[in-house]
Description:
Elements: H1 2-17, E1 30-32, E2 35-41, E3 44-48, E4 54-57, H2 60-70, E5 74-76, E6 82-86, H3 93-98, E7 107-111, H4 118-127, H5 134-142, E8 151-155, E9 158-162
Parallel strand pairs: 1-5, 2-6, 6-7
Antiparallel strand pairs: 2-3, 3-4, 8-9
Amino acid sequence: MKKLLKILVLAAFLGALGLLPFRSTDAAKLLPVKTVVITKSGDSYTVDVGAGVKALGRSLTEALRRLREEVTGVLFLPTAEQVVLTEPAEEAAEAVAEEPGFRPAMGIYRTPDADPDPAALGEYLASHPSNTTILNVRAALAAGETPRIPRIRAVQGGFLVAE
């Protein structure tokens, strides 16, 4: 009983000093992400998660870091269901596969559209999931193969996915 009391007193003391390894986050500050769109223009990458939330960087890692820093609240990437690469940004597929913030089960697509709408894509892709995931891309790259990423394009108010 004395040992438990000592542990509780120590935990309270460390908590008061802010030295405990636990972090709490106000759920109201979380910004859940459904679709991540990555575009490339010149030497810069843009990461757009919808609702006007986007960031620019010289690399995908830098753009994601800036997005996390500049967003009001806490960017919550584990909720993302898919990532869409515009065709100029297709070369970032390897960087996407290596990004620790992306779940291996996220669907991955490419599109010829220069500035796709993440909200519209997310709504469509929620009911038309891909069989190609980040894990598939990782496996293909590990095997020395070129990953096959499905292509999605806008057609007459909707989208069409070609495997």
